[in-house]
């Protein structure tokens, strides 16, 4: 194994190399593994070649190489003849493993410490579920009929939560790891897709000939009213569900383990997470001498904890009932080598392609399940991501003077662009109607019209009479902004950083405060762009420094490009400038003096 290499990990998380990072949060006590620059990639895009691909992977592990990657849930159809011709609609490969000499190994590495400012480097829109309760209930009744007829004892039914994504996927990964510290997190970067998994569930861990499985079955959403979660979780339904899957997995292990070696040393253990409690059981066995990686996968994949029992019957029902393929969700992620194989079951798993994100959610349905609680449980399992959804409204501040709006088209263009960026539904008609109402109520005088576009697409607007704002002294804040903060480029309510700092300066008599980014470059003021007059030319920082592209700023740059120009500015440039101006579309030019 390679020694720990923090720089390699940083480059992987924030750069372009393909590979995967298998992360164990420091509190779990496990090791983390980084795999980059594969010698070869083994990929399977059709079920007919699945066994051949797995044989190749297995052969490489026998030769001393590491194989690291994932298997999609639908790969399980390749192990049964009756399923090999099913149409899965899967866009992700059934299997993809990189072959490596060795991984970089980390102990107690804090992913959040490696990615400063990560909280503002991504945006997740509110989740949209592929099944509402009405459609879920129809499928639930269909499954319950099969359960009550004795065709199957348990079925894991899943559906999707979709969202619009912007920013750095590694920053989302860090934010999720902060709120959801687990032993089997994964970050996989592919050319066309990023896969993030915050799984707490071990599929199997094979060390030498000893193999351990730890299925999760039994879920309780956190509720302040629940005083004894253990008692609530270990009810008749929870215990029966857990025992059913433990028996199924013992049977699967029986195909590859020595007779009499399989045991369940720990049953019905309670594990606590941020939003819910889970019940786990531990199963162990001793592998037969001829059980290689291929044999283990064929016997165990996919895990019974994400299909149901009997497994083949449950898989058949899943294929006929679920509308979309699961992909990596509920498949397997991990690595294999000569004497060790560790794979998680990727629950709480996200796939991001461009700006489209999707996460699978589901629950096990048994004979005494009820539709409403099961549906609520599914939605509850998505709450760890839903908590990070962007809930900031987009703002436009427009000058309304004697019934006319200043630079209205530029403001309209900017709010449309921001709405598209954050995945917020925007209706031009609603926007114009709100402004029309404000104009009707305030036909004379100067006003600051403030329009808010909420994440749900609703628009609110208000107007305040404009009070003259004299120029005054300004200062450069010692606080640094992050040029990769996506919220700096859009006018939203996510302004606590600016507002809290500005209040301190305002109390000291300052008219405004200027900020610099992590490179020491000037960005903008609290509520204005900054222009420095140097030898008769007015310079303003380029947007790439990390600032809001003000509408008046844009107007000036386009109207007279020889007089108004972009240039990277530093504090010394402001100190040496002939004049400084705070500029926005509501106030126009306000002269300022740097203290």
Brief synopsis:
With 595 residues, the protein is of the alpha+beta class. A hairpin with a 2-residue loop joins strand 22 and strand 23.
Describe what this molecule looks like in 3D.
By secondary structure, the chain is of the alpha+beta class. The protein folds into 3 domains: 381 residues, 4-Layer Sandwich (Anthranilate synthase), CATH 3.60.120; 72 residues, Aminotransferase class 4, branched-chain amino acid transferase, N-terminal domain (D-amino Acid Aminotransferase, Chain A, domain 1); 123 residues, D-amino Acid Aminotransferase, subunit A, domain 2 (D-amino Acid Aminotransferase, Chain A, domain 2). The protein is 28% helix and 33% strand. It has 16 helices and 33 strands. The strands form 4 sheets. Strands 1, 2, 6, 7, 8, 9, 10, 11, 17, 20 and 21 form an 11-stranded antiparallel sheet that branches.
């Amino acid at each position: 194994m390679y020694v720990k290499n923090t720089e390699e990990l940083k480059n992987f998380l924030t750069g372009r190399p393909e590979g995967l990072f298998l992360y164990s949060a420091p509190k779990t006590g496990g090791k983390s593994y980084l795999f980059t620059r594969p010698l070869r990639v083994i990929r399977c895009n059709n079920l007919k070649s699945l066994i051949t691909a797995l044989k190749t992977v297995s052969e490489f592990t026998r030769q001393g190489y590491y194989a690291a990657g994932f298997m999609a849930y639908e790969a399980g159809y390749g192990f049964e003849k009756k399923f090999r011709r099913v149409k899965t609609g899967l866009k992700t490969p059934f299997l993809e493993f990189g072959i490596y000499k060795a991984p970089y190994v980390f102990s107690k590495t804090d992913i959040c410490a490696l990615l400063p400012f990560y909280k503002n480097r991504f945006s997740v829109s509110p989740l949209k579920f592929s099944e509402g309760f009405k459609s879920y209930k129809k499928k639930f009744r269909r499954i319950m009929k099969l359960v009550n007829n004795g065709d199957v004892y348990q079925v894991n039914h899943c559906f999707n939560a979709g969202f619009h994504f912007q920013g750095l996927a590694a920053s989302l990964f860090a934010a999720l790891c902060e709120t959801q510290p687990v032993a089997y997190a994964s970050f996989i970067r592919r050319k066309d897709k990023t896969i993030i998994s915050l799984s707490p569930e071990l599929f199997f861990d094979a060390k030498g000939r000893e193999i351990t499985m730890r299925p999760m079955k039994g879920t309780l959403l956190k509720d302040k009213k629940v005083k004894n979660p253990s008692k609530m979780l270990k009810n008749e339904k929870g215990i029966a569900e857990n025992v059913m899957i433990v028996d199924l997995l013992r049977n699967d292990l029986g195909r590859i383990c020595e007779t009499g070696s399989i045991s369940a040393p720990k049953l019905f253990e309670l594990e606590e997470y941020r939003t819910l409690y889970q019940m786990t059981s531990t199963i162990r066995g001793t592998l037969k001498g001829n059980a290689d990686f291929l044999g283990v996968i064929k016997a165990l994949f996919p895990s019974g904890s994400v299909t149901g029992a009997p497994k083949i019957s449950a898989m058949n029902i899943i294929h006929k009932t679920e509308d979309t393929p699961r992909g990596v969700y509920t498949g397997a992620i991990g690595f294999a080598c000569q004497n060790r194989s560790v794979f998680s079951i990727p629950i709480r798993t996200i796939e991001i392609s461009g700006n489209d994100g999707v996460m699978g959610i589901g629950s096990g349905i048994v004979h005494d399940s009820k539709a409403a609680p099961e549906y609520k449980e599914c939605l509850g399992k998505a709450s760890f991501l839903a908590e990070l959804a962007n809930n900031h409204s987009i703002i436009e501040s427009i000058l309304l003077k004697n019934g006319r709006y200043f630079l209205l088209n530029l403001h309209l263009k900017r709010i449309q662009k921001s709405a598209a960026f954050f995945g917020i539904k925007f209706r031009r008609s609603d926007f114009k109607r709100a402004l029309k109402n404000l104009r009707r109520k305030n036909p004379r005088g100067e006003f600051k019209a403030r329009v808010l576009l909420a994440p749900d697409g609703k628009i609110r607007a208000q107007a305040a009479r404009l009070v003259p704002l004299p120029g005054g002294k300004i200062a450069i804040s010692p606080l640094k902004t992050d040029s990769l903060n996506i919220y700096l480029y859009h006018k939203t309510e996510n302004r606590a950083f600016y507002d809290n700092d500005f209040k301190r300066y305002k109390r000291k008599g300052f008219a405004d405060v200027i900020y610099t980014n992590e490179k020491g470059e000037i960005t903008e003021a609290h509520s204005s762009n900054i222009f420095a007059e140097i030898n008769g030319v007015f310079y303003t920082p380029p947007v790439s420094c990390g600032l809001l592209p003000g509408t008046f700023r844009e107007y000036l740059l386009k109207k007279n490009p020889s007089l108004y120009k972009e240039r990277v500015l530093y504090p010394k440039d402001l100190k040496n400038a002939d004049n400084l101006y705070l500029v926005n579309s509501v106030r126009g030019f306000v002269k300022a003096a740097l203290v």
